[in-house]
Amino acid sequence: MSAQVGERSVVEAGRGSDSWLTRIGAFFRKEINELRRQPRLILSLVGGPLLVLGLFGAAFQNANPKLRTALVVPANGVQGVSEERLSQLIGLNFELVEVTSDRARAEELLREDQLDVVQIIPDNIVSSIAEGTNPTLEVESSAINPVTEGWVQYLAYALVNEINREILRTQTAQAQSEASGLQGRIAEARVKIGDLERDLSEVSIRQFQQITTDMLTILDRIEGALPANAVLGNTRVEAFRQHIQETRATLGRFEQALADGRVEDALAEVQRAQSDLTRLDDTIQIFVSIPPENIIAPVQSSYANLNRLGRAFDPVIYYAPGVVALLVQHTAVTLGALALVRERLMGALEVFRVAPVTLIQLLIGKYAAYTLFIVVVAAVLSLLLTLIGVPIFGSLLLFVLLIILLTLASLGVGFLISTVSNSDSQAIQLSMITLLVSIFFSGLFIALDSFARPALAVSFILPMTHGVAGLQNVMLRGLPPTSLSWLGLVLIAVVTFGLVLLLFSRQLKKA
Amino acid sequence: MTLAPEEYAFYMQGAGLEFAPGVGVFDLDMAIPKGTIVGMIGPSGCGKSTTVRLLLGLYKPTTGRVLTMGKAPTEFAPADRERIGYIPQQFVLYPNLSVAENIHFVSSLYGMPGPARRARLDELLEFVEMREARDRLGRQLSGGMQRRLMLAGALMHDPALLFADEPTAGIDPVLRDRFWEQFRKLRDEGRTLFVTTQIVSEAVYCDYVAVMRKGRLLAIDTPEGLRHSTLGGEFVDVTVDTPHVGPAMKALRRQSYVVKRKAKGGKREAAIDLLPDDTDETDTLRILVDNASARLPEVLNLLEEREVTIHSAGEHVPSYDEVFIKIMEDVKAPDEDVDNPAGEVAASAKGATA
């Protein structure tokens, strides 16, 4: 042992900025050494998310819930659409497990949770439409999950649209068929009208009356078969309907004039009818040549994904940036939350107070060590993710900067938890609550647009919100993080550091 | 030789810190020269750690004055703190760090640069006999090794002043002896040590012993001085034939060198106790005299003149446990015993400053 007590040579050798850095280094090395002695922690941090993502990728099939469905059809069959076609339509989004006419039984199964959805087809679809009323397809569910209920309602809406479309398509095809049949009659009528103009004899009049009566009947049927204007909104069909009505009116007046013996008037109407029939013939020609699909759905859609991939990513890839952000935040929050509370509980603060070390040195040392550790873990995890196909289209530098900033902001939250926790378990509990809040409010699984505006304040103070958005931009879109992402993380990091400094300095004075 | 307050290693004058009414430390007076070991003895919760914290500047006194190395410790600059080593009562050890890493950490807090740390580490490990355990993790150390590790950590930066708050608590007597041996080596190198303990027998290792109870300093003196002042003198044991006990006691009571003490009823009488032996033939007289070595021949001459048969005689040195118990019995806090106010003791303690 040295006998030169009080000369303080060993410490003086490290005076000044070196000494300042030495004290920061004390905490930095201590934390790094403690972390590297926990291989299970490192393994779980890197392997855990990979394993979860792998399982997710292997197990995930569809985001839509599988809805066990019973179809209740009228005892006398379905009108307007075939039962087979109806089953096909339902099968697009529902798992049709039963077709029955026993509504009560189906509802009982629903209540017993043996079914998820019961769909009841009305027994008078076509006749109700013809009568101007809207038949109702009843959809019942026993969902307790609000997301599932939302899906049921949405899919039921889509199904009704499909059924409506099918009914319209059938009706239109029927009208076209009827109209085709009318063309022959029109040609015959036009010949008869020509004869009538030339020879308005009794026989011709009777023949023509017969044709006129037949044509009026057919016109009525065609018009009846034509879907409502409001439903179709197709101008050609509207013109067709108008021509039918005009021709019918002309033929009606002609028939009336003949019946009244007003030959002059009848001749005038005959000429007008000739013109109407020619026009109607042309219109029918156009009407029957249009495919029913074009008539009932005149506007078609096309879709193209302009991202780098040309399509949406697989769920595993899409969620990968979020998982990286989640790992970074949760690790940082947990490490930070335990960092100060453990020092406090083991009585180290007293040693720190006696030593010539400042709170700033303590915090910088711990921040630096944890940041290095987490960035390395995140880098290794990201590297492994690239091996399973997760891209980083954007700048690697921005990626690293974002991870560092996300780590600093998350550490701030963790250290803040540490200052308000009285025990390890309390710190862990608060970390878990932070994790839970992050899962709901960070936009990882539920879009931020789904929340009321006040809740967005909660989202904003979560580092993960900005981390997820920023990492998705950098990794999947090849874009830099938005200004809001940078600003959010910087603000969280600065504010939490200030609060930790303030609160922890008070605790240190009481140590 | 009287020193100025700034020249003492520790100086307290009427220092006190009251956490709540009646709770804290009160009227602390001491002046400890540099290069000594001062041991503070007292039961758990008596205020030893609070006193240490006052001297370290962790607490600010509400009354009186505290100086450590000539400065108010609450105003210590980093350079002043670099001269202090501290072993807290609560053991601070990082279980996932090795012995060397734990020591490096503590010494780095004092700004000790890496090369200096590495150069000194082996020397310190040798000193605390832990060279073989250099790479062992903190969680793998026994209780005694943990204590030694803390000592090494506190000494790495070569402090002039070492505070050790109950460093020997919970360790076996052999290791305790080794600890005190190391403390004395450090003292011999010129360091000043302030050591608190609940183990009264450790007083013998100290240069000065301070006894605390309920936040008050009951006594502070050298170990011998404390024993003498507490007992009021020194004991001489004389074993005589049983039939001669009466005449012997009668003769001794009249001697001026036999210390008088207060008996029941307030009457003062010579401090002579009869200690019956196992046999029916002899008994031992324990006589409290002002100076045992000087008075023993006089006692023997007196008894021989009275033709008392003496079987054996010698000085009886009570253990510090007995001294401590005596202090505790004799001195009570002011609120406990108005007939024996602590103020009187405090005054004696003040007078006993080293």
What can you tell me about this protein's structure?
The complex is a heterodimer of chains A (511) and B (354). Chain A contains 20 helices and 4 strands. Chain A is mainly alpha-helical and 511 residues long. A 4-stranded mixed sheet of chain A has the order 2-1-3-4, with helices on both faces. In chain A, helix 4 links the parallel strand 1 and strand 2 (95-100). The longest helix of chain A is centred in the middle third of the chain and has 53 residues, at 146-198. The radius of gyration of chain A is 39 Å and the shape is elongated. Chain A starts with 8 loop residues before the first helix and ends with a helix. In chain A, 39% of the residues are buried. Mean pLDDT of chain A is 84; it is low at 2-10. Chain B is α/β, with parallel strands linked by helices. Chain B is built from 11 helices and 15 strands. Chain B has helices spanning 48-56, 78-81, 99-109, 114-127, 143-155, 173-188, 223-231, 245-253, 292-305, 320-330, 342-351, and strands at 10-20, 23-32, 37-41, 63-68, 84-87, 161-165, 192-197, 208-213, 216-221, 234-241, 260-262, 268-270, 272-276, 282-289, 310-316. In chain B, strands 5-6-7-3-8-9 form a 6-stranded mixed sheet, sandwiched between helices. In chain B, strand 13 (272-276) and strand 14 form a beta hairpin. In chain B, helix 3 (99-109) crosses helix 4 (114-127), helix 3 (99-109) packs parallel to helix 5 and helix 7 (223-231) packs across helix 10 (320-330). Chain B is elongated, with a radius of gyration of 24 Å. Chain B starts with 9 loop residues before the first strand and ends with a helix. Classes of the chains: A mainly alpha (511), B alpha/beta (354). The interface between A and B is large, with 39 and 45 residues.
